[in-house]
Amino acid sequence: MIASVDDLHVTLRGNPVLRGVSLSVRPGEILGLVGESGSGKSMLALSLLGLLPPDAHPQVTGTVEVAGVDMVHGSAAAHRAVRRRELGVIFQDPMTSLNPTMRIGRQITEVTRDRAQAVQLLEHVGVADAALRLRVYPHELSGGLRQRVMTAIAVAGRPSLIIADEPTTALDVTVQAQVLKLLRDLRDEYGCSVLFITHDLAVAAQITDRIGVMYAGRLAELGPTRDLLTAPAHPYTAGLLRSRLSLSTPRDRDLPTLQAEAGSRGSGCAYHPRCPLAVDRCAEEQPPLTGSDHQKSCWRDISDMPAGNSAPDPGGHGAAAEGEPVVKLRDIRCDFKVRNGWRRAGTLKALDGVDLDVAPGEAVSIVGESGSGKSTLLRVIAGLIKPTAGTREVTGGTQMVFQDAGSSLTPWLTIGELLRERVLKLGRAEQDDRIEKALTAIGLPITVATARPRQLSGGQRQRVALARATIVPPAVLLCDEPTSALDASLAASVLNLIRKLRGDLGMAVVFVTHDLAVARLMGDRIVVMTGGRVVETGAADDLVSRPQAEYTRTLLAAVPEITS
Amino acid sequence: MSDAAVVPRRFGVRARTPAVHNKNLNWVLIGLLGLITLIALTARWLAPDDPIQPVGDFNLPPGSPGHLLGTDLIGRDLLSRTLWGIQASWLSALAVVLVGLLAGGLIGLVAGAAGGWVDNVLMRLTDLFLALPGVLVAIAIVAALGPGLEHTLIGISIVWWPYYARIIRGEVRALAARPHVEAARLAGAGKGRILRRHLLPGAVPTAIVTASLDIGNVVLLLAGLSFIGLGQLAPAPELGADTARALSQLLAQWWVPVVPGLAVMLLSLIANLGGDALRELLDGRR
Fold first, then answer.
1. A58: helix, coil or strand?
2. In terms of domains, do A358 and A411 share one?
3. Which has the closest alpha carbon to A355: A527, A480, A478?
4. Could you give the ipTM of this predicted complex?
5. Which of A267, B208, B213, B256 pairs as cysteine with B246 (C-beta 3.0–4.6 A)?
6. Are B15 and A17 a contacting pair at CB < 8 A?
7. Per the record, where are the segments of Low complexity compositional bias (chain A) (predicted)?
8. Which CATH code fits B22-42+77-285?
9. What are phi and psi of A306, to 5 degrees?
10. Structural domain for A542, as ranges
11. In angstroms, rounded to a whole number, what is the distance separating the alpha carbons of residues A366 and A377?
12. Does A236 touch chain B (CB under 8 A)?
């Protein structure tokens, strides 16, 4: 075994983050660790590295061994030696984990001690002009290249285990596909093991040999990738698979969701409050992880699992009405001045001649990778950015929901105060009435009105942002990746809410996303953008099944799918 | 098992523990700021004797009966003089800081929120004041208006606000770039409303912390100016002036200059520690 963890319990600041995890990484395998935020997957990685945050006063019981060294108790020097010789690490954001003040070359030679080898490594991870690139700083590279450099550093010391914590989450899908392939190739060549941490089952499906599904600090299920995906043994895994939004999810019904988090969980299985199979025993006794090759931690038999919980969309979603478009953009151009160091300023064409019509009540999805101009377009519609050229006609009000709901809500104001701002013209009694109605419509209790944003969870905050946008229904609701920061099960319920609000209020929706599967589910029509231009527009299902543009095909091919 | 483990930011429950062990100490330090202010305000009743009239023998050492801190060269009670001195120094420092905070804060707020040419004009004006050697300008103003505590305060206030304008403008600028301001604009909030509700409250903690850390500086500057004869006029008690005038006695009767000198040190120390404590508490809250 390269690394093994046995009955590991970790408590940080009095909160249990790992509650009895046993797991071993076999030589040469890629082991996926999948779970939602807070499931403890990153803490497991930090435990293996011997790098649990000391200021959180970690209390650890159980054993963690890497290459035969105890990573819990041994000396700091021994831990360092293991990290240097046996481990390589790739983090989610290479911009923050690479040193911004050091040239790439020096950062690699810190490990290799040899320039020639550094060049060879960079070539190996697919960086063109490797010898020249040694002289650049991290900020001069694109996200994909940075992650390749990070990978080069991780493999430079010929580690026996690479720990990759969400290495592709911050990357565009097409780049993600390349980085996944790179990791696989490196594993094949060097024969090292990889512990691959991700929140996305489909990404894990692309690359892993085995998958461990984590829930609330425990392994819910652990088994060979193919088995686990085709025949999940734990209701949580089954629920995750079912609620995953893919290119084949039915468009005409509510998106399948997991039961929302409920109450405290007592001494039994942590999943039982959300579990459709829960019986009394589940609330009282913690199920052990049982089985030989494909292990599960559940008292029940998965074959009793009821069929999908998605109800047909009751009102259908709002249909596009005939009539004058509410948004009419013609040949919109948007130039940004960019400065390249102290050199002369250049011009970035964020939008390069975009036409767009949105009919009343229509849902349009705009898809593109980072830098495609999709968010800029949304801002032009909202009137936040004045286009350099072109005409913009927007009838009726627009409202916007941002990617990061947390930072779009003023932190020191209460939810009630934030909502009230939109209805100041009304009388006091009517204001209260509208606030109550808006909160009810998004499924939050009225007591939320006295809370401040940081007291809410991410999903609740995004709901509040929606309430704020729709308390006075706008003609067009603009959504800028509203669910990309949310866990899968939460994301689906927020998407359902947007669809419901659209139907109830008769708004048009313009939904910006990088995810084609989400775009297909949220839009009647999809607009594909790259480099500030629209490359293809089409009805949602047509565009996905019969893409015309080369770029759309590339994008579709890169979407990770679980094929059974 | 606590809920907090599953849903870290559950309603109303916030797990924030760093620096818990310091929290009580912080409140004590902030309490000291209040205590000093209270002492300064009630010096008139706290002081056992008249600070200006001789009330006992000359140069009594500390601990003499009736004169806890001793008496000075002409037999004035040192405790009374120090208490009155604390009043003069502390309240003056508070006044200067308050004026700086209001004037500088307003300019910084407007500049940071407006941006563009308004920002440029206001900030270049601020730069102009920052470029002047502050203390010298203050001295020049005092020299022009004639010595006296009020004139010294006017002089210092005129050169003191630019620091606040700078700091608050920077803070507001950073806040203005955050999505919640854009969201408020989209929600239909007007300029005044955004300024009042979505920007100002965010800059308040920084302003308060900066100001409380600054009180110590002003106390020292006032003492320094009084020391060279530009502060409180002769018989009235002022800590810096009292230290300066009695300096020749340092070897013979050390307590006469040291008592007011120590008081200056104490004020400045408490102001700094209190400011730090305030910062920690407010940082924790954001």
1. coil
2. yes
3. A527
4. 0.74
5. B256
6. no
7. 311-322
8. 1.10.3720.10
9. -70, 160
10. 327-558
11. 9
12. no
